[in-house]
């Protein structure tokens, strides 16, 4: 048994798997997680069975966080079938800052991780232009 929240990443293609591998490059090997990638030729029933088998392999005693790529897509629609209790949450908008945040905070309780994810998502999004790098003083948000 692990004392971390279980994590399931689901996406179109190999994005979920690659996002987790990228996170591991930055913060080290992770445990108690699975990934599911969905391709256009996949059978939805087989995907659901794969998802269920992977979820069953996780230690969910501290909860389950599911990260999916886009709301309304097949990964999110399939993952929604797992929302059967208050210890499972689903977050769409999978990106590397979210994966890093949840991995670094999986020892916290589920409610605290949810708050942390909301902040990570907001802080992980910026739009920069050339004027951001011209003539200004460098600060912690410099490119």
From TrEMBL:
GO cellular component, as recorded: cytoplasm; membrane
* Gene3D superfamilies (alphabetical): Phosphotransferase system, mannose-type IIA component (3.40.50.510)
**Does the entry feature the keyword Kinase, yes or no?**
yes
Q: Which UniProt keywords apply?
A: Cytoplasm, Kinase, Phosphotransferase system, Sugar transport, Transferase, Transport
Report the source organism. Answer: Streptococcus danieliae
Q: Which Pfam families match?
A: EIIA-man (PF03610)
Alphabetized InterPro entries for the sequence: Bacterial_PTS_sugar_comp (IPR051471), PTS_EIIA_man-typ (IPR004701), PTS_EIIA_man-typ_sf (IPR036662), PTS_IIA_man (IPR033887)
Q: Tell me the protein's name.
A: PTS sugar transporter subunit IIA
Q: Which residues form the PTS EIIA type-4 domain?
A: 4-125
**Can you say where in the cell this protein is located?**
Cytoplasm
Where in this chain does the entry annotate a coiled-coil region?
none
* Any GO MF annotation of the entry: kinase activity
One GO term (biological process)? phosphoenolpyruvate-dependent sugar phosphotransferase system
């Amino acid at each position: 048994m692990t004392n971390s929240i279980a994590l399931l990443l689901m996406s179109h293609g190999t994005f979920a798997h690659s996002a987790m591998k990228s996170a591991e490059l930055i913060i080290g090997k992770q445990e108690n997680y699975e990934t599911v990638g969905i391709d256009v030729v996949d059978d939805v029933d087989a995907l659901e069975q794969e998802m269920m088998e992977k979820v069953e392999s996780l230690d969910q005693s501290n909860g389950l966080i599911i990260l999916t790529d886009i709301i309304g897509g097949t990964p999110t629609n399939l993952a929604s079938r797992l929302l059967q209790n208050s210890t499972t949450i689903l977050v769409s908008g999978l990106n590397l800052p979210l994966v890093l945040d949840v991995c670094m905070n999986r020892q916290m309780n589920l409610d605290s991780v949810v708050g942390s994810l909301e902040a990570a998502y907001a802080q992980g999004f910026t739009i920069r232009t050339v004027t951001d790098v011209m003539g200004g003083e460098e600060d912690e948000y410099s490119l």
